[in-house]
Design brief:
single chain, 243 residues, 5 helices
Length: 243
């Protein structure tokens, strides 16, 4: 009678082990699927984050490029000058303009076209040198040099002020881009957490179910092994007729 009871328990436990083993396989499949879904969501938001960072980088690069171009244009606009600028430029309130100096200088440049060894150039050069050595011209040159120094100082101040303004503007824009990126990143992370929440909850439930099923399977297998051992022992102890 005890043997039959053990045999019945063995068959029952075998069915339970098979059922739990099949359930474990099914749970494993569900685990793989939910893991894949979680990974896909994470990859999707990683791509969105990369796009945000690329957009922020583009905005920063565009601002820097515009400011660099303006800086180059400003450098060309604010060119330093020498005394010749005031000696040879008429109008705009310039009181250093010297018509004779310009006339002698232009004549020398024109004669140079005939060659520096030409008599025309040598004569023009001589007239130019004679003029720039006169006391009146030296006085005029001093005035022009003073005007050039004053003008260059003003240009330097204006240029420095413009550079500071552009630098401040660039810094402010880049700071605003950083703030924007941080806010967008936080919003994206919150959105990702909301998207992952039900998936993570399902993943946790699967883990709990898997652990419970594994514990039941382990216990059932242990009981089955114990009963099989008991059956084998009874089989060996049973009297053998005809021996």
């Amino acid at each position: 009678m005890a043997y039959l009871l053990l045999l019945h328990q063995k068959m029952s436990l075998k069915r339970k082990v098979n059922k739990l083993t099949l359930a474990q396989t099914s749970i494993g499949t569900r685990k793989e699927r939910i893991t894949k879904r979680i990974e896909n969501v994470q990859k999707s938001y990683a791509r969105k984050q990369s796009k945000l960072e690329a957009q922020a980088k583009q905005m920063t690069s565009m601002t820097n490029s515009i400011m660099n171009n303006r800086m180059m244009a400003m450098s060309q606009a604010y060119q330093m000058v020498d005394a010749n600028y005031f000696l040879m430029t008429e109008g705009n309130g310039n009181n250093c303009y010297d018509g004779d100096y310009k006339r002698y200088y232009d004549a020398m440049v024109e004669a140079q076209k005939q060659g520096t060894d030409s008599q025309a150039f040598k004569d023009a050069q001589q007239r130019f040198n004679d003029y720039i050595n006169t006391p009146d011209f030296k006085t005029q040159m001093q005035l022009a040099q003073s005007a050039a120094m004053q003008y260059n100082n003003q240009i330097a101040v204006q240029k420095q002020w413009q550079q500071q303004m552009m630098s401040t503007f660039t810094t402010n824009v880049n700071d605003q881009v950083s703030i924007w990126l941080e806010a967008q990143t936080q919003a994206l992370e919150d959105e990702e957490q909301m998207a992952l929440a039900p998936l993570n909850e399902e993943d946790t439930q699967i883990d709990i179910e898997q652990a419970s099923n594994e514990a039941q399977l382990s216990y059932a297998q242990s009981r089955l092994e114990s009963i099989e051992s008991a059956l084998q022992s009874q089989t060996q102890e049973a009297p053998k007729f005809g021996a």
